[in-house]
């Protein structure tokens, strides 16, 4: 069956494991790229990262490996290396996140591959890059959160630094890798040449320090933890109500006046202490006390809907299950149901070339026979 997608015809050899690389290649696979996931003889370690498990494979693995063919090669052996070189003859992209120097040690480094396959785009994902003070050292999401300053700004005011509850650095590194590959494909369409795409967890972590890095560059002050509050905007925080807490994200004066109208407090809107965002930020504690008193008589579920309809960003604080069961999640078609597989759909929606969900995550070595016969041109 043919593939309908923006990347139809692009062939990717995915040597990566765990999260950043597989997340990157799933993004590309959802939009039509043919991705061959090559695992070591022991398999991707995330196959065992459970519970929960489905059919003996951890949900962690299944969450980032759909739309891929699955095989195993031992790249430390001559047979494995020769098989990979054969596969690369028809490949457009190679993605790997081995420890720095591994590919060179196996005789499969960028210098050799770019010479043999000048159109190949080689994406290397690492913790810190290949050189510099930390070059070649391993990087893991939580450790890089700590090193990059992200943990220092996450957590309650006066409380300890806290890891972000999702592997945010791995995920943004996956996004950056996908962007880098697409940029290199665009350049190749003009130059006819592939190139090396280097993406590191450390660089990716620094890249999302907004607005804290910008604030530091402007003020010289080290950012502090503010809990759910925004360092630059007020009111932008979680507020208790008669029932469930809701989050207010009031980004401008119009929204603030609308909030006051919904809460039926005209005096709050005209109070000079809250007359603009600068004033509201300076007097945020007094503002928060006033809003908590006003909202204490409202049911959070109803109030958040009224605010949203009036143009004020607001929401009840939902759990994961409630978010996945939300009516808008269904409307946006953000859940994939495919055979025995269920997962989060692609958030990238193109009008003419929509993402497609063609294969569940592969079982270990599921498509080995196809690769042995070099028959991986069509989806099953």
Summarize the structure.
This is Crotonobetainyl-CoA:carnitine CoA-transferase CaiB-like acyl-CoA transferase. By secondary structure, this protein is of the alpha/beta class.
Polypeptide structure, described:
The protein has about 375 residues and is an alpha/beta fold. The protein has 2 domains: about 10-210 and about 330-370, 3-Layer(aba) Sandwich (Rossmann fold), CATH 3.40.50.10540; about 235-325, 2-Layer Sandwich (formyl-coa transferase, domain 3), CATH 3.30.1540.10. It is about 40% helix and about 15% strand. It is built from 17 helices and 13 strands. Strand 1, helix 1 and strand 2 form a beta-alpha-beta unit. The radius of gyration is 25 Å and the shape is elongated. The model has no long low-confidence stretch (mean pLDDT about 95).
Task: Name some characteristics of this structure.
380 residues, formyl-coa transferase, domain 3, 38% helix, elongated, Rossmann fold
- In total, the number of strands is 13
Structural category is: alpha/beta
Percent strand: 5-15%
| Structural domain count | 2
The CATH topology name of the largest domain reads Rossmann fold
What's the CATH class label of the largest domain? Alpha Beta
C-alpha termini separation = 7 Å
Order of helices and strands: EHEEEHEHEHHEHHEHHEEHHHHHEHHEEH
Shape: elongated
What assembly state would you assign to the polypeptide chains in this entry? single chain
Query: What would the average pLDDT be, to the nearest integer?
Result: 94
Please summarize the sheet with the most strands: 6 strands, parallel
Indicate the CATH architecture of the largest domain: 3-Layer(aba) Sandwich
CATH-level-4 superfamily name of the largest domain: Crotonobetainyl-coa:carnitine coa-transferase, domain 1
Mind telling me the C-alpha Rg? 25 Å
Q: Low-confidence runs (pLDDT<50, min 5 residues)? A: none
User: Percent helix among the residues?
Assistant: 25-40%
Pfam family, one: CoA_transf_3
Biased composition (Basic and acidic residues): 363-380
Keywords: Transferase
Organism: Bradyrhizobium macuxiense
């Amino acid at each position: 069956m043919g593939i309908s997608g923006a990347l139809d015809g692009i062939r990717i050899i995915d040597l990566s494991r765990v999260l950043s690389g597989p997340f990157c290649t799933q993004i590309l696979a959802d939009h039509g790229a043919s991705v061959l996931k090559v695992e070591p003889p022991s398999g991707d370690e995330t196959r065992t990262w459970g519970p929960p498990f489905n059919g003996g494979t951890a949900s962690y693995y299944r969450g980032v490996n759909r739309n891929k063919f699955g095989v195993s090669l031992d790249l430390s052996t001559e047979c494995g290396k020769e098989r990979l070189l054969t596969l690369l003859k028809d490949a457009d992209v190679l993605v790997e996140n081995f420890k720095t120097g591994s590919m060179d040690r196996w005789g499969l480094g960028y210098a050799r591959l770019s010479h043999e396959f000048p159109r190949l785009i080689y994406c290397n994902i690492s913790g810190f890059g290949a050189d510099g003070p930390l070059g070649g050292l391993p990087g893991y999401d939580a450790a890089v959160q700590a090193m990059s300053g992200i943990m220092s700004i996450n957590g309650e005011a006066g409380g300890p630094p806290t890891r972000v509850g999702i592997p945010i650095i791995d995920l943004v590194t996956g996004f950056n890798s996908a962007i880098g590959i697409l940029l290199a494909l665009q350049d190749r369409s003009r130059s006819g040449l592939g190139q090396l795409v280097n993406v590191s967890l450390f660089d990716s972590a620094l890249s999302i320090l907004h607005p804290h890095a910008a604030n530091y560059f402007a003020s010289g002050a080290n950012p502090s933890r503010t809990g759910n509050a925004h360092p630059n905007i007020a009111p932008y925080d979680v507020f208790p109500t008669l029932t469930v807490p809701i989050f207010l994200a009031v980004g401008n004066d119009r929204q603030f006046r609308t909030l006051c109208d919904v809460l039926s407090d005209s005096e709050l809107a005209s109070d000079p202490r809250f007359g603009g965002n600068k004033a509201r930020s300076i007097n945020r504690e007094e503002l928060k006390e006033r809003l908590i008193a006003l909202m204490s008589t409202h049911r959070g579920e109803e109030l958040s809907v009224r605010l949203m309809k009036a143009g004020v960003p607001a929401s009840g604080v939902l759990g994961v299950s409630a978010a996945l069961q939300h009516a808008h999640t269904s409307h946006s078609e953000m859940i994939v149901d495919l055979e025995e597989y269920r997962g989060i759909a692609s958030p990238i929606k193109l009008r003419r070339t929509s993402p497609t969900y063609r294969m569940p995550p592969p079982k270990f070595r599921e498509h080995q026979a196809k690769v042995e016969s070099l028959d991986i041109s069509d989806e099953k």
